[in-house]
Please model this.
Amino acid sequence: MDEGAIDREAMGKMAKALAFIKGETDPTALALKLASDTGKPADIKKARALFIKLKPSERKSAMAMISDD
Model:
């Protein structure tokens, strides 16, 4: 997943999925929501870095939740 591979709508969906999985105050969920809202490259970079640091099972669960849409 690189910065061009995820659009703002997908980041918003991912933020909602992570908020459900980890809680609404989770830093990664908040960063993804901010990146989705602003679209700023710095926000996207931070959200991506936090997403990559998640446990593989958390990433997989979040991806599964948004792929069912």
The two ends are 19 Å apart (CA to CA). The chain has a mean pLDDT of 89. The chain has one domain: 8-67.
